[in-house]
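Issue: copy button drops trailing tokens. Both records pasted manually instead:
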Amino acid sequence: MTVDDGMDLDNPLLENSADFAAVPDAFQRLWTPHRMVYIQDGQQPHPDDCPFCLAPAMDDEKALIVARGTYAYVLLNLFPYNSGHLLVCPYRHVATYDEASPEEVAEIGSLTQTAMRVLTQVSNCDGFNIGMNQGRIAGAGIAEHLHQHIVPRWALDSNFFPIIAGTKAIPKLLGETRREIADAWPNDEG
């Protein structure tokens, strides 16, 4: 009832690429239809339901917040690409970088620098992917609230698991990671 790639042949919602006319390529694909809610027109959360607007009102531990500044804050990504994947968000509900105030831009930059130092200290990472997806078409999961990704990278963090199994292994729990980063965050910043 399953094939070697782990697909359940009895599930009518699963598709097998061998069923379609195509020329195979070297890419594995991770189909994530549950993410459609983030990219369909009209499916962005209402500002009253925006997770980046709600998080600052919550307890830091529950919201996964590691540091707070005056204009922006830092929290763990609930769906990380790597352990320690952080987001820097302005408190104000703005969608794009050009809508952010000079104070917000400066603090997002400062918090990003501190996050890089802290992640290097606590995780011994070898590098970072840092970026912002601006708008739904650019891949922003929550397009209506600006957020910058800081993804720590290691020399050997890419292995067979995501490629063969379509799964990313995260070695630490979010709560443990949040605690380590928050504890290492300098008291005079954020």
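Record 2 (pasted manually too):
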Amino acid sequence: MDEARDRVLMGPERRSMVVREADRKVTAYHEVGHALAAQLLPHANRVAKLTVVPRGRAAGYMMPDADDRLHVTRPALEDMIAVALAGRAAEDIIFHEITTGAQNDFQQATSIARRMVTEWGMSDRIGKVAHATDQGTYLGGGAQMLPMSEHTAARIDDEIKTLIDAAYTRATDLIGEHLTRVHEIVSVLLTRETLTGEEFAALLNGETLEPLPPATPSTPPRIAG
């Protein structure tokens, strides 16, 4: 069931893919950054799985627990943005470099922030006014911005940036506070390649995992030095 879920959501595993060790390390810190924020922020969905095994177009991924709530609060949305940006925050803290790995994260964070401001009336500065609608769009296509002045559009852009900057600061502070534990978890993740949510929570609490059982003969992933 887990494999079927992962295949549908992320695509097939790509264990034959040649991955540089430096890229595996960046991926590990990136995904542990997501996982740390998901596990510690009060309104975020907890970690279900964490892996550095490439799957589909992803070099690795953090899968959160399924979320069945009908209504999402502003604090929960702010935590979602922080979780989305925490991977990039971890890269920034550890490597002091910018990579292309956070492209989808930025798109997700920006989409949430924009909807908070333009659709859900969650901006005190912009007010409880709808500036976008998803009604009457041809074949879906997402929300369409309503007519507005240049001044209002600029204020909306400023508010979106404010939400994202605040979330990025929260993620950076959280990772910096738990940096020693981040290093420890990354070391384990690079060795085991995949962690369950329970294993990640145990490591975050300073516990030690049971040794892995002897591996059955298989084709190992090719790692480029």
